[in-house]
Amino acid sequence: MTEILPIIYRDEYLVVINKPGGLLVHRSEIDRHETRFAVQLLRDQIGQMVYPIHRLDKPTSGVLVFALSAEVARQLSDIFTRQALTKTYVAVVRGFAPEQGLIDHPLLEELDKYTDKKARANKPAQPAITTFKTLAQVEFPFSIDKYPCTRYSLVQCIPQTGRKHQIRRHMKHISHPIIGDAKHGKGNHNRFFQEKFSCAGLMLASTEMYFTHPVTNQALTLIAPLSSKFTHIIRQFGWETALPSNWITVQDN
């Protein structure tokens, strides 16, 4: 059975999907054995060429924008390069995060062995800024680290720059790593989520994006509801009222 990707916006110039977590945007040497890619699935689904404009990490779900022509791809790429847009993410992190904050922490470029073979290995750290706000918190009477209880926060993050793994690395930098992050997170908390809440995978989603349409000049607000897995955690933790209702799936599948 052919997989159908959820389309959240489409016109004659661009198409936007809600990318499932675990799906690569396009073929990569990093995951040689993967056979599912958003570019090919979407191309086959709508019956025309699509041009990916930006990337989401394989484990990250949410808003993913494609152009439907090379010219619109150039225009959209300019918007993303200039950061003339607003991207909003939601994450579940370890601990009680501060009420709000701004993380201004330059990041060295993370190079992949295969895809970044020709990239400079000695680049200086690049400016990276993320603002965040804590939406909800919860505490459980389970000892995982050295503390008698374990705490988690639901955090909204808005990156002001577009560095690789920026939100994941910035949340680790302030000691509130994202749950399910195998590279930058805490393995004991990741395992706890899997065993206690039957929840595996990265708890990070691109829920909303705002920019001006490059052709029509229409203001676009693109919303990708959270996955059923993410929604399940939101409901278990009693966090439904912390998020706009259209960010949460209607029912678990």
Structure description:
By secondary structure, the protein is α+β, with helices and mostly antiparallel strands. Helices cover 19% and strands 27% of the residues. The chain has one domain (7-247): 2-Layer Sandwich (Pseudouridine synthase), CATH 3.30.2350. Strands 1, 2, 3, 4, 5, 6, 7, 8, 9 and 10 form a 10-stranded mixed β-sheet that branches. The protein starts with 6 loop residues before the first strand and ends in a 17-residue tail after the last helix.
Give a short summary of the structure.
The chain has 253 residues and is of the alpha+beta class. Helix content is 19%, strand content 27%. It is globular.
Number of domain units = 1
General form:
globular
**Could you tell me how far the N terminus lies from the C terminus, measured between alpha carbons in angstroms?**
18 Å
Mean pLDDT: 90
SSE class: alpha+beta
